[in-house]
Write a structure and sequence with these properties.
The protein is mostly helical. 44% of the residues lie in helices and 7% in strands. Bound molecules: zinc ion.
Length: 151
């Protein structure tokens, strides 16, 4: 219901063209050869009709970018694949049956904002070392300066 509602709001014009079977060149979904399944969900047609993949993976549902539902889905599958990078997160999302337009950019945005990833991929902090003492920088005969460790 949620997917259908989002698609209905965002792709109303495109979906009516798909229903009529006459896609114009101005249709921004034309390159995915979209179709509407028997439950009314707009899906990627693509070229995988004869593949052994489950239908959701071969024909994922098309979702818009900059949409709250898309962001929630990206976040969910990013967490589900244990905070992997953009490539694997996007692959998981597509495998689960969601095709988000501009997916790479959208997934990158979610990963940029992910607190766990920020912590795991953060730079190791390095402290600035203090200046060396004069005794170590002055040329002098051996044993001019002597240090002793406390045992
Ligand atoms: Zn993450």
């Amino acid at each position: 219901m949620i997917i259908k509602s989002v698609q209905g709001e965002t792709f109303a014009a495109e979906m009516s063209e798909v229903r009529s079977g006459k896609l114009t060149k101005s249709n921004k979904l034309i390159k995915w050869n979209p179709y509407i399944d028997n439950r009314g969900i707009l899906r990627v047609g693509g070229r995988l009709s004869y593949s052994q993949l489950p239908e959701r993976a071969a024909h994922p549902a098309i979702l818009p970018k900059n949409c709250h539902v898309s962001t929630l889905l990206i976040r969910h599958y990013h967490q589900k694949c244990n905070h992997q990078g953009r490539h694997i997160s996007l692959g998981t999302l597509r495998n689960e049956g969601y095709w988000i337009l501009g997916g790479q950019r959208q997934v990158s945005k979610v990963i940029e904002d992910c607190v766990v990833c920020k912590r795991l991929r953060g730079k190791v902090q390095e402290q600035i070392m203090a200046d060396l003492p004069e005794e170590r920088l002055t040329e002098a005969p051996p044993f001019t300066f002597v240090g002793a460790d406390v045992f």
